[in-house]
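Researcher: Structure prediction, please.
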Amino acid sequence: MKGIGLFGGTFNPLHNGHLKVAQDVKAGFNLESIYFIPSSVPPHKGTEGLADVKDRFQIIQTAMGKGFTASDVEIDRQGPSYSIDTVRYFKDKLPASTLCYLIVGMDAFLEIDTWRSFKTLFDLIPMIVMTRPVKGTQITTRFIEELEKYIHAHVDSAYDFVEHKSCFIHPAKQSVYLCYVTPVDISSTQIRNYVRQGVSIKHMVPDAVEKYIHKKGLYL
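Model: Predicted structure follows.
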């Protein structure tokens, strides 16, 4: 059975890097669909320079292709946008047989101990942690050891790494998978700076995203 992925973030704005890593994850895990979920009030980031969530949602909608869906689940929710609430929403909404993954970047994962009810997430949903190859190699022993050390310290010491699956498994909790994605040298911060400076962002975002940003006068 094909699963679905939940990919949250500020997406301020969505860019080609986001789309490329999502394509890598979708292909690597044979997912039927990935939901892009813009956070309304990000709990771990300031709101300075943050476009209105309705604009960020519209930007995502303009860039969605086959197998990608924009979700507005966090737009009308009161208060900060917590992943635990979003995961519970999808778990309640989708059929019980649906295989559902939470997609997170490596930097975000290494701060997961600061998330609300983060340990409950490991009970509810398997995670796909996106990471990039190190110096041309997909994996290093030191990298895995450091990641395992973090998981043991902050989540549960019973997690073990299974090399042939690139996965941390636990006898009772959900698995944590590693997915090696294509490095793309693009950041939302860089895009916002370019827009303010009048520099073209054509090579960094889909055409429809560029047009929407300029039409609405975002990031000026």
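Model: The radius of gyration is 18 Å.
Researcher: Thanks, that helps.
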